[in-house]
Write the structure tokens for this entry.
Amino acid sequence: MTKEIKLPPLRTAQLGYVSAIEIEGPRGSLAGTVLRGRGGDAIGILDGILIEPSARRIAFLVVQTFHENAACQYLLPVHAVLPRMEAARHALFVDIDEDEMVEYHRLAHHGFPDLSHADLISALRQEPVTRDWIAHCGIGTFC
């Protein structure tokens, strides 16, 4: 029997996509950052984030996974998965495991407007900041 999953509708017009390549972490670009679940197992690769500029927050992690030789993307709500960056392992730890991924929005293609690093900074902060500010805060802090 399939578990029925009720997800809130996405307000896609209010979200913008920032590629992991555009995001600086403690060890440089977050491109290729491995997402690891509660037990430390790899559950995907960070593809990017979705920001909600009007609320000045990062709303979702966009995660690339591979199931049965097919690539899939999932949106993991930041408030639910509590991401924590571990720079030494170039890994982002989240408070879920791989089998729970199906409980979140799955994307065929993201279709969100692409935003740059400058757009990200502008959306999250009023005063100008540098890439070092993002690295200092870490992906899980969102200060």
